[in-house]
Design a protein that fits this description.
The structure holds two protein chains of two kinds.
Chain A: H1 19-42, E1 56-60, E2 66-73, E3 78-83, H2 85-90, E4 95-98, E5 103-105, E6 120-124, E7 131-138, E8 145-146, E9 150-153, E10 160-163, E11 171-173, H3 175-178, E12 192-195, E13 204-208, E14 210-211, H4 214-217, E15 223-224, E16 227-233, E17 246-248, E18 250-252, E19 258-266, E20 271-272, E21 287-294, E22 299-300, E23 310-315, E24 322-331, E25 333-334, E26 344-351, E27 361-362, E28 366-375
Parallel strand pairs in A: 3-7
Antiparallel strand pairs in A: 1-4, 2-3, 5-6, 6-7, 8-28, 9-10, 11-16, 12-13, 13-28, 14-15, 16-17, 16-26, 17-22, 18-26, 19-24, 19-28, 20-27, 21-23, 21-26, 23-25
Chain B: H1 2-22, E1 32-46, E2 54-62, E3 66-75, E4 80-110, E5 113-143, E6 148-161, E7 164-175, E8 182-191, E9 199-212, E10 215-224, E11 241-252
Antiparallel strand pairs in B: 1-3, 1-11, 2-4, 3-4, 4-5, 5-6, 5-7, 6-9, 7-8, 9-10, 10-11
The chains are: A mainly beta, B mainly beta.
Chain lengths: 376, 254
């Protein structure tokens, strides 16, 4: 070994050769220092930031006043109300909760009346940096006859969604969920969109089962089926419990007899399971059905086929390939012949892959629907 | 990785052998010293200071992170010297933290497309990192006495293998930012291993204490000055720096 510094040999240093001190210097001291550095860094945790969030999280009014549960459309900052005539005439005082620390104007508990201007609720976040302006939308559904002639583009994520002649939304797609997966911001990169390949009018609804993205793969989604339904899409649990994100049903009055429309369908070539593995011998099929159920709370993907509130169902059974537009006209099958009383909702559910709700299907499966009707 | 390690060890042995044989004539003059360094790195890739979006560190654990290398010191008159090492350096750790309103842009390549998610995340984050570098520290050496020796200087590191992955869980994202729609997440994985800067540079210092005839206990600290990720990376809105201590031994070849 090199004798580096014999010129400065200090006999006092010999004292630290004693074993315990040596051990201290060897191990404890450096470990201690590193621990102190780590602790210093960890203890540098700052005060929490003020809340930048400004959601209206709940908007509660007496259920008797509603034909459908209140839907807070967080994507488009809308509060959608299906009111009874009485509620429209008398007004009401909603109970509102917001993101922690945020404020809302008009305040929770303030009465609101209709007939004048559009009503807005404005929230401001606790940190004061963010505001949201919610529009109260009074929804009412006229004829249950849909030709999918009018489509709008969601401004930030650029997916298409169908609207009625008066601009109201009866139909919803699964596109808001797909938007979270980083697909390119273009209507054609989403599974549900408009097409000029129509039966009546100028347009129809096109649903194509698409491959999941690398980003959606991170949460285990490898396939997006096109989906179109009467109801609302709730993004909150779109990843955790996707079947609950599709909230099916819109208020419906009357006793429906038949469900009719036109469709064409071409199944994709390779059916894949949830993990993305090909399933030989399995052929994709589409899904087109209508369900009438009791109450004013929507059903979702977990109970649309099983709920004891279901009154009648009309389901297309020939869901294989149909190269040309094909007319269907299916009678509603009622569980009982008893007359209908109370509030009801109607869900029409259309998907390009029958098992798309569990992310199984064939990429490329294409369904076009047009001129859907509920016949009284 | 194993292959790289093997190649490196062979290289190291070769250097040591060459150094040893060529030293014979100069030993008497005590003009230089060569050592084998071996140890473990303990530390973290950490933000400095912590942003207020990090609420709590639930855990930190070291991972297999050896550091081995060869050191050459050219001795100047009196107590000074100039040293350089070449080391194979694993910088590894795991950590679990709670974050709130954490801004992130996650870009995932998907063939010729890139999928982006932009928004904020609140919830738990677990990160596992293991990056391997060839590190060259260059430093001044000061010999306090026969037993104590200190080093102070800079290091440069070249990345040759990287892992930076983990998951976010039990929380929610907001699409686009704080006012975007809230989407609950039970668990989602991430892998940013390919995005790590291939070069790191920082401060380097340490001390050696002679504990046997040819052996010293050694403590070194390397404090990275270059962010772990390039500025184009937007997975987190603050830079991380490699801050690692090395605990080990110095074996004096001659």
């Amino acid at each position: 070994m090199a004798e580096l510094s014999s010129n400065n040999f200090d006999p006092a240093c010999h004292q630290i050769t004693r074993a315990p001190i040596k051990l201290y210097n060897m191990l404890i001291k450096p470990v201690g220092w590193i621990a102190i550095i780590m602790l210093l860094m960890i203890s540098c945790i700052k005060d929490p930031p003020l809340n930048p969030e400004a959601d209206i999280e709940s908007f509660t009014i007496d259920k008797d006043l509603l034909l459908a549960d209140v839907f807070i459309d967080q994507v488009n900052s809308k509060i959608v109300l299906h009111l009874t005539d009485d509620a429209y005439d008398s007004g009401f005082a909603p109970f509102i909760t917001t993101s922690a620390g945020a404020t809302v104007t008009p305040a929770s508990g303030d009465s609101i009346f209709f007939g004048g201007d559009t009503i807005h609720y404005v929230t401001r976040s606790q940190d004061g940096r963010y505001a949201k302006r919610y529009t109260v939308e009074l929804a009412s559904i006229g004829n249950w006859a849909f030709d999918f002639e009018h489509w709008e583009i969601q401004p930030t994520d650029k997916y298409a969604y169908p609207v009625e002649d008066d601009g109201s939304m009866v139909w919803t797609t699964g596109n808001p969920g797909v938007a979270l997966s980083g697909v390119s911001k273009d209507p054609s990169s989403y599974p549900t969109r408009s097409t000029s390949d129509h039966m009546y009018g100028m347009k129809a609804a096109e649903l194509v089962t698409l491959k999941g993205t690398a980003l959606s793969g991170l949460v285990g989604i490898r396939l997006f089926a096109g989906s179109l339904f009467t109801g609302t899409f709730n993004s909150l649990n779109a990843f955790v419990n996707p079947l609950t994100a599709t909230e099916f049903g819109q208020p419906f009055a009357g006793r429906p007899r038949r469900f009719s429309g036109y469709f064409k369908y071409t199944a994709g070539s390779i059916f894949q399971d949830k993990e993305g593995n090909a399933v030989p011998g399995m052929k994709d099929s589409c899904s087109i059905y209508a369900v009438l159920f009791k109450g004013n709370t929507r059903l979702d993907g977990t109970n649309i086929n099983t709920s004891d509130r279901i009154v009648a169902t009309a389901r297309l059974k020939t869901t294989g390939d149909h190269a040309q537009f094909t007319r269907f006209d299916i009678p509603f099958e009622y569980a009982t012949t008893a007359p209908l009383t109370g509030k009801h909702m109607m869900a029409i559910v259309v998907s390009s892959s029958q098992y798309g709700d569990t992310y199984r299907g064939a990429i490329g499966s294409r369904l076009v629907v047009d001129s859907l009707r509920i016949i009284y | 990785m194993k292959q790289s390690l093997l190649i490196y060890l062979m290289l190291l042995t070769a250097i040591a052998t060459v150094a040893q044989s060529s030293d014979k004539e100069t030993v008497r003059t005590r003009r230089h010293e060569s050592n084998v360094l071996a140890g473990f790195n303990l530390g973290a890739a950490a933000p400095v200071p912590f942003p207020n979006t990090i609420r709590k560190i639930d855990g930190w654990w070291p991972r297999m992170s050896p550091s081995i290398g060869y050191e050459y010191i050219y001795l100047l008159p009196q107590k000074w010297g100039i040293g350089a090492s070449v080391k194979l350096d694993y910088k590894a750790m795991g950590t679990r933290a709670q974050v709130i309103y954490f801004p992130t842009i996650i870009s995932v390549k998907d063939g010729d497309q890139t999928n982006d998610f932009t928004g904020t995340f609140s919830g738990s984050n677990e990160t596992r990192m293991s990056n391997a570098y060839v590190t060259v520290p260059v430093y001044g050496v000061y010999q306090f006495n026969r037993r104590w020796k200190a080093r102070l200087g800079l290091y440069m590191s070249w990345l040759f293998s990287s892992e930076f992955e983990g998951n976010v869980s039990d929380g929610y994202i907001r699409n686009g930012g704080p006012t975007g729609e809230k989407v609950n997440i039970d668990v989602a994985t991430f892998d940013f291993g390919d995005e790590i800067n291939s070069f790191d540079v920082g401060l380097y210092g340490g001390g050696d204490l002679l504990i046997a005839r040819k052996l010293s206990a050694s403590v070194q600290l390397s404090w990275g000055l270059r962010p772990l990720f390039p500025s184009s990376f937007q997975g987190m809105d603050f830079p991380l720096y490699n801050i690692f201590g090395t605990l080990g031994i110095t074996y004096h070849l001659h």
